[in-house]
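Please decode residue identities from the backbone states below.
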């Protein structure tokens, strides 16, 4: 049975503050499904003067599809920072860890080559056991790779695990956070971006 969520839609891709551009590329979790971009975790990141956040989340995207549109996105927006968050749809499609790793490395290498600072998001827990098992493999690789390359990580998974007793309140289905979940993601992003990225 379907359900209706009566939440006003916010259509803007960007919340223009002033100058410094931060683009977030990802899937429906970055987009803010099912509420819309105006309710994504990105909207719960603290806005300060001199920063412009651009939501480039696309529902259904795998890391492969993110990779396909990555170069065009960088050329269009010319950001100083790019936040990468993907892997959940790859797990649902049983994409190999090697393929996911190749996609993420390609995007990070392109960012660094263009003088853009990449930030890697670790996907939130999936409440479907089969997909979560695959995601655990992805996450392990992501953390190890980020450590070797000295890439800043926002560990959304750990943020949710710290609320393990209240996980049901953070989701609207097996894959997608609800508003409280997006708010928690924004809080986790704030903690990292404020200290390790923006200073």
């Amino acid at each position: 049975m379907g359900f209706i969520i009566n939440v006003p839609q916010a259509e803007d891709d960007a919340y223009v503050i002033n100058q410094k551009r931060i683009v977030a590329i990802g899937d429906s979790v970055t987009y803010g499904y099912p509420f819309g971009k105006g309710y994504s975790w990105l909207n719960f990141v603290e806005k300060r003067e001199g920063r412009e956040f651009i939501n480039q989340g696309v529902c259904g995207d795998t890391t492969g599809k993110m990779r396909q549109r990555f170069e065009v996105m960088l050329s269009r927006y010319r950001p100083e920072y790019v936040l990468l968050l993907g892997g959940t749809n790859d797990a649902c499609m049983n994409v190999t860890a090697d393929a996911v790793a190749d996609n993420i490395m390609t995007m990070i290498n392109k960012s660094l080559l263009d003088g853009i600072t990449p930030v890697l998001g670790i996907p939130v827990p999936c409440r479907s056991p089969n997909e979560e098992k695959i995601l655990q493999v992805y996450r392990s690789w992501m953390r190890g790779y980020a450590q070797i390359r000295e890439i800043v990580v926002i560990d959304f998974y750990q943020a949710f695990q710290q609320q393990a007793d209240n996980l049901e309140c953070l989701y609207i289905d097996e894959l997608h956070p609800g508003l409280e979940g997006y708010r928690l993601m924004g809080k986790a992003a704030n903690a990292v971006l404020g200290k390790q990225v923006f200073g």
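Observation: DSSP finds seven helices and six strands in the chain.
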